[in-house]
Amino acid sequence: MYTGPTSTTQGITLERHILERQLSIPGATGDFTGLFQQIALAAKLINSRVRSAGLAGVLGLTGDTNVQGEEVTKLDIFANNVLVRSVEAGGHLCVMASEENEGIIPIPDRFATGKYVLMFDPLDGSSNIDVDINIGTIFSIHRRLTTGRHGGEADCLQRGASQVAAGYVIYGSSTVLVYTAGQGVHGFTLDPAVGEFFLSHENIRIPTKGKIYSVNEGNTYLWSEGVRRWVEGMKTPGPDGKPYSARYVGSLVADFHRTLLKGGVFAYPADQKNPQGKLRLLYEAAPMAMLAEAAGGAASEGSRRVMEVVPTSLHQRVPLYIGSSEDVAAAERLLRET
Ligand code: AHG
Ligand code: MN
Ligand code: MN
What we know:
Blueprint: H1 14-23, H2 31-51, H3 53-56, E1 61-65, E2 71-73, H4 74-88, E3 93-98, E4 105-106, E5 116-124, E6 135-143, H5 153-156, E7 165-171, E8 175-180, E9 185-191, E10 196-201, E11 212-214, H6 225-234, E12 245-246, H7 252-262, E13 265-268, H8 281-294, E14 298-300, E15 320-323, H9 325-337
Parallel strand pairs: 3-5, 11-12, 11-13
Antiparallel strand pairs: 1-2, 3-4, 5-6, 6-7, 7-8, 8-9, 9-10, 13-15, 14-15
The structure holds 2,5-anhydro-1,6-di-O-phosphono-D-glucitol and manganese (II) ion (2 copies).
């Protein structure tokens, strides 16, 4: 479990951390470092707007619905535009996809293109904005598959296991960016006075078993017998005489961040209303799955790794059980038995 910064991690910026890792990879071009700098810049810009959302009068709905048929808030649109504008000109990407855009987002002709693919949920947990509860941004990076100047949908429809990096930013009591590029999971806290992300959570490991379960139990009436029995089991005192504690924020980023640091399990199961689950595979479940696995945890869609699910459409949904490896395995076992 994370125990706090040490003298060896103090003062290391996100930029330096990524650069140092890149220098250790023979043949690395600096593309990845450049892309990350732009994502970090977008995170700071979104953070600044989130922190002043009430004052800036941007709370509330635009009155539109997005491609998922959900209400779109003004901050969703702002965050989406900031991310696109921050990364499109860098020459590192060939194509993007976002929760807020029905189709792929091409790189405009006036900019150079590169070898990476970026997918994101610009503002996660947006129903929590107006009530001052934590929200976030999630991102997933792949290497492109196609050739030619521009990338296409085929570059986006890759398994989670092919991601080269994934991460999120939580706009919480502090703003923290957590990422993995395969070698460990690292968290950086934004110092608002300096405007830099500093290494604060080096090499995060999820405890193998936790004490918290996180699921929207209001959906019980929509669940299968297996899901109901799994949640009942969480509420039944174990050998230590205690049941699991319930925590549910309703922002995947916040629920996952807690699960990553404290252990336990977060789930958004398939149900009668959402037979494929609610969360989106490419820019919600897959990046969180990469982070969970890189931290020693697990992510399952019920019977197999989320990382193995082959996407067929950009906004495809997937059931998600994620967190401590023993807790995810226990959920899989019960789902299989019923
Ligand atoms: P978004 O705000 O990007 O649409 O995502 C909301 C998601 C996710 O953050 C959260 O885990 C889940 O919706 C909560 O759903 P319920 O309100 O159905 O519990
Ligand atoms: Mn989301
Ligand atoms: Mn969103």
